[in-house]
Amino acid sequence: MRFIPKEEKFFDHFEELAIKIEEGGKLFTEILDNFEHSEAKVSTLKEIEHEADGITHRIYEKMHKTFLTPFDREDIYALANKMDSILDMIEASAVRMYLYKVKKPADEIKELAIILNNAIAKVKMIVHGLRDKKNSKKILEACVEINTLENEADYILRQAMARLFEKEKDAIELIKWKEIFERIEEAVDVCEDVSNIVEGIVLKHG
Q: Which residues of the chain have pLDDT under 50?
């Protein structure tokens, strides 16, 4: 009942990467909840992102050294790349908030973080589900749910941008917040990219 019974190690690496992304997403929420004392957590988030990079590179190396891969090489590369990018966006958001000396995270940041963590949980589920063909239906349903979450994040971003341009008179502050909002929303976008790749894998091998 497996998609293609070859090279289980690929699945191990992808699952490990999904766990790292989840770890990073939860830490980002902790940073927002206690932002005044976030410096150490931002450093930890950078370490998690670095560990995820290592897993991603191991996937690339294994892809080049393996004759029979569990699914198409372009899908392996795209999936690893996009999963790694989720954590890149999370880390970039946290670092910018720290470097820009943000005093207090905006309410929309926290709303986006909740949506992001919900999307990450779905990403983890669909990636872990790839080992077994019987998970196809649940994976496809979760992919639709990730798309819905991305639409919600889009809406919050639009609302945040409207409020920002209406109320923020300092151009530099406006630019700072605009970049932070967009980075977090982009992380949700990349979750949807991951779901699209996984959906394609399931449909091709289903």
A: 1-5
